[in-house]
Amino acid sequence: MQVSRCDDPARLPDILAVMHAAFGSLNIDPPSGALRETVDDLAKRLASDVIFIVEEEGALIASVFCTPLGDALYVGRLAVAPSHQRRGIAKRLMAEAESEARRRSLGKLTLRARLMLPDNIAFFRACGFVTGAEHAHAGYAHPTNVEMEKTLSD
């Protein structure tokens, strides 16, 4: 397995396919916005975000988007192909995101996790994140996601 930074627009269809497979396998309400994203959407993000990918035998099997926001690096769209989940790949991508934040001298990692996915919240806690405020998606009266943050020490 190889983790690398992706700057190549030609890889965006592969990234999108993995995202759609990973997020499409989730039974959540509301459905993930990742399922509405297109290659054009990802191309716009390539200009502002750092994208890390994982490849195995030449096939793209995982990705994560990292967006600098103030003194934090926002981690989003963490996606691992369903056939490769529960093998430590997401943990490797989170470590890469943390390294990127440190390279940029940012003080924390942030993300939002779905409340309907307690295993994901537990995973992020195991990575050192703490939970914060809960939020509702538009049109929902109850919270649907939670802010999570990991403070980086020197």
UniProtKB/TrEMBL annotation:
<dbReference type="InterPro" id="IPR050832">
    <property type="entry name" value="Bact_Acetyltransf"/>
</dbReference>
<dbReference type="InterPro" id="IPR016181">
    <property type="entry name" value="Acyl_CoA_acyltransferase"/>
</dbReference>
<dbReference type="Pfam" id="PF00583">
    <property type="entry name" value="Acetyltransf_1"/>
</dbReference>
<keyword id="KW-0012">Acyltransferase</keyword>
<dbReference type="InterPro" id="IPR000182">
    <property type="entry name" value="GNAT_dom"/>
</dbReference>
<feature type="domain" description="N-acetyltransferase">
    <location>
        <begin position="2"/>
        <end position="153"/>
    </location>
</feature>
<protein>
    <submittedName>
        <fullName>Putative acetyltransferase</fullName>
    </submittedName>
</protein>
<keyword id="KW-0808">Transferase</keyword>
<dbReference type="GO" id="GO:0016747">
    <property type="term" value="F:acyltransferase activity, transferring groups other than amino-acyl groups"/>
</dbReference>
